[in-house]
Amino acid sequence: MINKQVFLPIENSLHSSTFIVTMQHSNSILQTLEALRSFQIVQCQMHHEKVATDQRNHPKYNLQDGVIVFNRVNLCDAKLRNKRLGCAHSKANLNFETVLDTLISNLPQCKHQMSTLKSEFKSVVTKIYALDHRVGHIEHERSLCQLNSDSKKEANLTESLGVLKTEHHVLMNQLLKIKTDIEQLIKLELNYSNL
Prior knowledge:
mainly alpha, 2 domains, two-stranded antiparallel ribbon, 5 helices, 62% helix, elongated, disordered N terminus
């Protein structure tokens, strides 16, 4: 935290200490804004739900107690996932909510707006998690179709998958708008135009 002190005459010492506290508070909010800005929105199309394939493009799988278990492609690097909002396989969304809670504490005059934006964020993330499960299920079913040479059903599932990926794109854009709205609210509250 950067403490900026201004030396004022003795008769203004009360104003001087108020200014120091205000600057410390502003710096804390600015640091929180920077933490908020570090989060990313990535249009990954839930790539991690894909089934891994071999050199002939056949699904890779294992049999466990007579049940086919498909291998998935690797998740993104953990360091990347930890900053990617909407990711169902990291703590990024919870960490973002913690940053929002800090902002609500530091900007009590914005509590209602921040709380509303936080609720919207949580709602969108919940939809993304549900979508993630649906995509995983369709990828599994598509791979079964490949193994069983059921190209008609596979084509229908591929079409459904396209619809879900479009829905994911829309939800990720909603997250971006929420994040941008939060940043704008902070800027307005701090009365900065070029943060």
